[in-house]
Specification:
By secondary structure, this protein is mainly alpha-helical. The protein has twelve helices and no strands. It is a multi-pass membrane protein.
């Protein structure tokens, strides 16, 4: 059996990871809300799913901290009531786990469906993957909440629960679906970013941000191995603490990455203001005139971008690159722009005629 010092070190690790991700979750979520409500003025399924996921993930971090305190009390003072509370909170944490991952997949799925709305294979795959994940999560939640099945069973308790075998099957299916989903969505997002009309200095940070999804998948793999590995009584507590740590890493990194992914409009606004102040000092009125022309061009070509539902910057650039544009659409954009600029040309000719008179 582990000595209390080693156990306390493991509990400290769980508490530190939970606190770190709680801070990251809160900050990234608040920034996401600011971007969606104040900058883009939009709030859709992806955002509502993230609200649900954020509440549960923050609760998961708090439950991990509190249950660790009860475990510490048991190992310090031998209080059996504390370990009973700890086991109940661990069971609740397991139930939260599946709901968090299901909510995260719904949020990411809704986001990527807007990017790949013109690609049938990707949209069908996303629907199937998210749908299966949600169904398995509901079944998983039922086993975790209302049966005697445990996430990891101590040696002395094996064979006591009649539901354990069925629960293990659901656990295996859900874990594999979750890992596949993380890798699939991450690779799909990175590939779309890489072919988008974006500068390299923008692509690289965005791809690194999306790669946090792979970090979540790697944490899920490590957690899965720890859970399926048979353990002796002397290392059971150590493995259980490691499972708790990797669970927090898996969920926290996935949710934080999903929130940070939505912050590009905020960065674009900040950079635009910085450049605007700097440019105004040197160019003055000519810069404003150039920006007006660019704005006119963006307005003229707006009909081509309606399928992004206003997902500014990121979705516009990605979809504009990956969606083939027909000659008819190009002609429509040129005609629209020419009509938009016609009044200015007429004004110019009128001015020239007046000057000659």
């Amino acid at each position: 059996m582990l000595i209390p010092t080693t156990i306390f070190a493991g509990l400290d690790g769980v508490e530190i990871i939970a606190l770190v991700f709680l801070v990251l979750l809160l900050n990234s979520f608040v920034l996401r809300l600011y971007v969606r409500l104040r900058i883009l003025r939009q709030f859709d399924l992806a955002d509502w799913a993230m609200v649900f996921t954020f509440i549960l993930t923050a609760s998961q971090c708090i439950v991990s901290i509190v249950s660790g305190r009860f475990a510490r009390d048991f190992f310090s003072n031998g209080n059996t009531a504390s370990i009973l509370v700890n086991r109940k909170m661990t069971k609740a944490s397991n139930a939260l786990y599946c709901l968090i991952l299901a909510g995260l997949k719904v949020s990411l799925g809704a986001f990527f469906l807007k990017i790949f709305s013109h690609k049938r294979l990707q949209t069908v795959t996303i629907h199937v993957l998210v749908g299966l994940t949600v169904v398995c999560a509901v079944i998983y939640f039922g086993f975790a909440s209302f049966t005697c099945a445990q996430l990891k069973t101590p040696t002395i308790e094996r064979g006591r629960c009649e539901w354990q075998g069925a629960y293990n099957i659901v656990f295996y299916i859900f874990s594999v679906l979750n890992i596949i989903g993380d890798f699939f969505l991450t690779s799909m997002g990175i590939s779309a970013l890489w072919v988008a009309r974006l500068p390299v200095q923008t692509k690289v940070p965005a791809c690194l941000l999306l790669s946090l999804g792979c970090m979540s998948a790697i944490a899920a793999i490590i957690r899965f191995i720890l859970l399926v590995e048979l353990s002796e009584e002397r290392i059971f507590t150590r493995q259980s603490l490691a499972v708790g740590q990797w669970t927090l890493v898996e969920q926290g990194s996935g949710v934080v990455a999903a929130n940070l992914l939505m912050l590009r409009p905020l960065m674009a606004v900040i950079l635009h203001r910085i450049r605007g102040v700097s440019t105004a000092e040197h160019r003055g009125y000519e810069t404003e005139n150039l920006e007006s022309r660019r704005l006119g061009l963006r307005i003229a070509t707006k009909p081509q971008l309606e399928h992004t539902h206003g997902e500014a910057y990121l979705l516009r650039d990605i979809t504009g690159e990956t969606t083939p544009q027909t000659d008819e659409e190009k002609g429509h954009a040129e005609d629209t722009f020419s009509h938009a600029s016609a009044p200015s040309r007429q004004s110019s000719r009128l001015y020239d005629a007046t000057r000659h008179v």
